[in-house]
Amino acid sequence: MQISNFPVLQMHKSQTAMRASQKDFESAVNQMKLLTKDPGNEMKLKLYALYKQATEGPCNMPKPGMLDLISKAKWDAWSALGSLPKETAKQNYVELVSSLSSSASSSQGKPDADSKQPGYETLVVTSENGITKIMLNRPTKKNAITTQMYQEIMLALEAAAKDDSAITVLTGNGDYYCSGNDLNNFTDIPPGGVEEKAKNSAILLRDFVGCFIDFPKPLIAVVNGPAVGISVTLLGLFDIVYASDRATFHTPFSHLGQSPEGCSSYMFPKIMGSAKAAEMLIFGKKLTAREACAQGLVTEVFPDSTFQKEVWTRLKAYSKLPPNAMRISKQLIRNVEKEKLHAINSEESSVLQGRWLSDECTNAIMNFLSRKAKL
Ligand SMILES: CCCC/C=C/CC(=O)SCCNC(=O)CCNC(=O)[C@H](O)C(C)(C)COP(=O)(O)OP(=O)(O)OC[C@H]1O[C@@H](n2cnc3c(N)ncnc32)[C@H](O)[C@@H]1OP(=O)(O)O
């Protein structure tokens, strides 16, 4: 059996405690696609059977021949569920995947002080001096975010939320902070076609942004260079944004036939006023670091030559403040709007699902991929 047929899920315990919604189920199925560790054949069969029961009901397929071992094992597992109702199968599927997810994140473990955490291919995650640093690590691709990278960032945030560090930092390796969504993500079309791709991407986006909305500790962006697309829009959900004076902030959504995400349709007008937000989000105006700071999106700008030294000195001092007090203060500031932000996130994701199917978006992506257009 292919591991890719049994992708892993990141699901919050609170979601699984209640009855699994269709969204939870779809989210589980979508996120399971990026399993990096084989959960073993027994688990894969259980997941397969629950998935089939949840989507098709009781097994009424003819029994495969004895020599077709894999099909027979799958058929046996599905048939063994008898007349289990679809809703219960869905719930069991979500819970099973959630338990896989918890063991995956606990196996990533509590980060050792002063150590690089294993298990990430697209990130370098370290925990040192009370600071967990999540560094995007595709410098040759300007840290464009692949599907795998979205998943790894979610895992890293979930682990950071639980570890001993006082603050969490997101930054980029190389000359860019991040060039946004990797446009090649759109070329990996599943058997269900572009509609399924758009639907899966919307679920991934919603879950990804949701992790930032819910992140419980002070979250700091160290913007080491230009930032594009989703890496800019998310900044409204950070508690501090430090930028090198080399950084720029660009959200070319209209150019790409797309629309804002990361709760920026709400946070940007709130932060900088609707006129300035419109210039960025509708017209794709690129801001310098100093402009972004003047508009409240960036906390402070540092000269590039001393950026790393000054920022890390500052962060090391902050990381020694009482962690619980910082956490509680953050939550007081942020929790008031959590529900609203989740609703905005869902709406933005669903609007984007439609945009991804539009000619405007398809043409823009084709242009980039065929190298006719750059930002
Ligand atoms: C779950 C889905 C959520 C979706 C939500 C998000 C929306 C967004 O984020 S929209 C923003 C998408 N980003 C872009 O449109 C940026 C596209 N990239 C560029 O315009 C340029 O690459 C850039 C201006 C960033 C840098 O230009 P250069 O300095 O000239 O470098 P190169 O273009 O040569 O880049 C080097 C290398 O990296 C690849 N690259 C860079 N960015 C991306 C990207 N976003 N997606 C895919 N690939 C990217 C670029 O193609 C080059 O690759 P090679 O040619 O193979 O070397």
TrEMBL record:
Principal subcellular localisation of the protein: mitochondrion
Compartment annotation: Mitochondrion; Peroxisome matrix
Keyword tags: Acetylation, Isomerase, Mitochondrion, Peroxisome, Phosphoprotein, Transit peptide
Annotated ranges, domain ACB: 21-106
UniProt catalytic activity: a (3E)-enoyl-CoA = a 4-saturated (2E)-enoyl-CoA; (2E)-tetradecenoyl-CoA = (3Z)-tetradecenoyl-CoA; (3E)-nonenoyl-CoA = (2E)-nonenoyl-CoA; (3Z)-octenoyl-CoA = (2E)-octenoyl-CoA
Cellular-component GO terms for this entry: mitochondrion; peroxisomal matrix
Pathway linked to the protein: Lipid metabolism; fatty acid beta-oxidation
SUPFAM superfamilies referenced in this protein's UniProt entry, alphabetically: Acyl-CoA binding protein, ClpP/crotonase
GO molecular function, one term: fatty-acyl-CoA binding
EC numbers, comma separated: 5.3.3.8
PANTHER family: ENOYL-COA DELTA ISOMERASE 2, PTHR43684
Summary of the function given for this chain in its UniProt record: Able to isomerize both 3-cis and 3-trans double bonds into the 2-trans form in a range of enoyl-CoA species. Has a preference for 3-trans substrates.
Family in the record: In the C-terminal section; belongs to the enoyl-CoA hydratase/isomerase family.
Name of the protein in its database record: Enoyl-CoA delta isomerase 2
Gene: ECI2
